[in-house]
């Protein structure tokens, strides 16, 4: 009885919303941490299961695929069954997936458990933002969202280092560590959080859900399978071609369905707004390079230079800090400088960091690696806040949640595709260098990685092409009209 009284007193107190924020920050930290921790553990997992990189990439992409599918779906499910039930359900699924990952005896079992983890992660990350936004009044919302983003920035900074430390003891620990934290987070949520349901809800978009659930795994599988060592037919394989055809049909069905649906899974009609549409194309291209490039660096350091997992993880420590500080600064600068100027500078700095990475060798010093990472943190910090500001400039408050769903889904989709494409290129270029040169395996591997980084450089530069197109289109024409019929702002 006393526990019920304490719960009721807490839920009616003025500090209730800050308890909720702390609970959401814990869940967000766990979900984002898991991605950064596993990146560092991939070489050790490859060694433990005696698998190639083309198989090991699925440890990451399986998680990202199921998370992307759940991001837009979780909102409707929460409206129907309750935010508290769905959020805590996501925590339970994530924790169970983590426990199963730690028990994996085969790579197939590990990949399946990671897919289950991704389902929970998608629910946690999708509902976290909605819960924080609902609990805080507009005047406190900026502070709350700033603190919430600290959880993600902290996981980016400390995740690789923590992952490296745990991997050196046992790779199982990078998953097992989530179990006690997850149990604590579930118990905290049961005690703290109130239930909330949306009284107004449309029908679930089964056609949109099914088509995107078919499109994503088949696309990633075909990209990964094209250069796989077990596929002698390469890109001409009937399986690869068939997967691409079915995926293309599923994507066409998804776009057609979402365009006509009254309550779509993703409101892609928002892409008609020039600012938002162009920004999402830019985010997709940029995400392929950025997330794919982040995946490559631990491989280079551990497989090419012989770094331990802790050494490889420690170099990422400053990146999240620099990104966090620069994101705040660039957000303030958008009041005085056109956002596209800051985005352009950020993309240029990121491209420079990837180009310098493409010059790495087996003799590259630690200081040179740190310079690349400092530039990357600087570039990401300069890019994201102005890009978000520019993309949402002409949307209404009621359209923000739908816009966030599209943005999050595109980010995860581009990351999955980036990892699949760059792994395929890495496999091909490493084999190419091995066949043509009489050098060590480490040398061939490093040359394959640096070829990948050069591709990432051009992909990152290409992310500015949508904005160039928009600016050229705008010359001599009246300002575009935004989604509610009003003239758009000049940036």
TrEMBL record:
PROSITE patterns in UniProt: MFS
Family in the record: Belongs to the major facilitator superfamily. EmrB family.
Record carries keyword Amino-acid biosynthesis: no
Pfam families noted in UniProt: MFS_1
Predominant subcellular localization, coarse grouping: membrane
Sorted UniProt keywords: Cell membrane, Membrane, Transmembrane, Transmembrane helix, Transport
Localisation: Cell membrane
UniProt domain Major facilitator superfamily (MFS) profile: residue ranges: 20-475
Chain segments annotated as transmembrane: 20-46, 58-79, 86-105, 111-132, 144-167, 173-192, 204-223, 235-256, 276-297, 309-333, 340-357, 369-392, 413-433, 453-472
CDD domains: MFS_LmrB_MDR_like
GO molecular function terms listed in the Swiss-Prot or TrEMBL record: transmembrane transporter activity
Descriptive protein name: Major facilitator superfamily (MFS) profile domain-containing protein
Gene Ontology annotations for the cellular component aspect, listed alphabetically: plasma membrane
Topological category with respect to the lipid bilayer: Multi-pass membrane protein
